[in-house]
Structure prediction request, 283 residues.
Amino acid sequence: MKTKNTFTIHTELLDGKLDGARNIYMGANSTCHLYVIPREEITIANTINDISGQPAFYILLGSPKPQAYIGQTTDFANRKNDHVQKKDFWNTALVFISDNHKIYGDDVKYLEYLGIDAAQNAGSYELLNGSNPKKPNIAPYRVNDMEVFFRDIQLLCKFFGCYIFEIAKKETHSEHMFFVKSSDRPAQGTGFYDEKEGKFILIILMEGSLLATEVVKSFKSIASRDLFIKEHCKKDKGQIILLHDVSFESPSGASGFVLGRPSNGWDDWKDSDGKKLSEIVKR
Prediction:
């Protein structure tokens, strides 16, 4: 049964593949089209009249780590070449255009401003834009038009499965929580243990844990820790901050990465009552 709020979203498979290039749009409900283009098929942009030589708002997406670059251009078919050469992180491009071609250069600059602001406020993705654009000065009636158009961008983005403009829901954990903290450096971690089928213990570092910025010479996993930081953390104001929960196969591995030194995780992880992990979990 249809209600007054019912509308249809169309998906056109440009290459006949469900995970390939797609055109997603709302028909008569909006002029906004979302072209989803995998990196390996990016040259298809040259053949799409809606994209070639037309103003566009776009998002480059990376995975599995949620990273993104938000931009605007008057010709994505040409702009993509620079991103292919200079940006390695992305594997999918989301290109938004108006099918009546009545969006212009200043309009997409305003969409870029709205997009970066909304994504930063949501905090769901790490934005790789080097700087924030200034709010463009466009006619008041165009401001209203672009804000309506941007709402359609948000809708199609969410329909595709990209939640860059959605505020990330914080997980609540009912598990027995443990903490580790350094007395001589700014490093602290929060985690919990999880027994999987009785085979091993996982320590999951909670989002927001701070990793030590310096590592002692006796720490043997410096290279793997550096890679871990690159993949799972961000550096902000001299601090190394974990971006999301990460599983470790041993409590010592988790505490060692946090503290930047050799660690016996069974003793260093303690709960709010000061009890060691070894006192709670039988090995």
